[in-house]
Amino acid sequence: MPVTGLLSVTLEVPDVEPGIGFYTDAGLLCDRVGPDAQLRCAGQDRPSIVLLGGRPRKRLHHVALRAADLPQIAERVPANGGKLVAAPEGFAEDGLWVEDPHGGLFHLVDCAADAELPQGPEFRINAPGRIVRTRRSAILPRAAYPPARPLRMGHALLFTPDVPESVRFLSEALGMGLADHAQDVIAFCCARTNSDHHVLAFAKSPGIGFHHASFQVADPDEAGRAGRALADRSRRGDWGFGRHTIGSNFFHYIQDPWGSWFEYYADMDFIDDYDLWSPTNYDMADSLASWGPKVPDDFVHNYEVAGAFEPA
User: Fold this and answer.
1) For 27-68, what is each residue's pLDDT tens digit?
2) Which of 97, 92, 122, 99 has the alpha carbon at shortest distance from 107?
3) Which of 39, 66, 171, 258 has the most C-beta neighbours closer than 10 Å?
């Protein structure tokens, strides 16, 4: 079980200030480090999103993963079309730096798992023949809710020119598992023990790049409230509120300053033992959502390949 979870996504950007504004509006906390910015969830002492400022354009730099048995991974990477590479200038040399067959960069670190999140209030739904909430309202007045604070980053979706090959590399070299996919267009990969339905996912594109990072909130209501509030503040594109078929999570996506996306999610499928899971190949009609608003025209557009994002 080499890869056990997602640690962070690092992006190169021309100017960190728009990103700081966007991600702090989303509920993350910011630490400035020279020209760069580190954005983290409240209660965590490590960043989830790192922005490297002063770069020519927005571009995915690398993804950091928590992993065990690094010597085993080091053996498997070259045998599966990848490379072991030196740490980029200015980055720690701990763990393994790995380049996948398409040039995507991963930093694998053997570190302790995050502490378990505290259990929150149960999300209770009255249903036909099953009344579980009596003598109280499920919804408070709008002003009673504080701004959303994401609990953790759950997963990231990356662009790749060859989805099956990227999945094969994650599986054979990094020890992950294919959870589900839709043809050769999108695929979702999990850790092999006690994993969210997906930790990393891939969508087909002419080149590599970053599509979105997804942050867990307490329940579907908070995903809806937080998504609408961030969309109203950012005045950029959004998609939601809705629910995915693959993974089952409720979602709301908001476009960031460079054309990629930020997702709030709640209620994700969980795979406790990958050996007991059977991946499904879904029709494309189920690849994005079970229900929700119309998908934005550029939702799966890779601006890192096509050129700079020009907000409407």
Assistant:
1) 999 999 999 999 999 999 999 999 999 999 999 999 999 999
2) 97
3) 39
Cβ contacts of residue 129 below 8 Å, gap of 6+? none
Banded model confidence at residue 306, pLDDT cuts 50, 70, 90 = confident
Q: What would the two tokens of residue 45 be?
A: 């002492």
Q: What is the CATH number of domain 3-112+150-300?
A: 3.10.180.10
Backbone phi, psi, residue 183, to 5°: 55, -135
State mean pLDDT over 262-275. Answer: 98
Q: Rounded to whole angstroms, how far apart are CA atoms 43 and 30?
A: 13
Query: Judging by DSSP bridges, how do beta strands 186-190 and 177-182 pair with one another?
Result: antiparallel
Work out the number of other CB atoms within 10 angstroms of the CB of residue 167: 24
Tokens standing for residue 177: 């598992």
End-to-end alpha carbon distance in the chain: 44
* pLDDT tens digits, one per residue of 174-217: 999 999 999 999 999 999 999 999 999 999 999 999 999 999 99
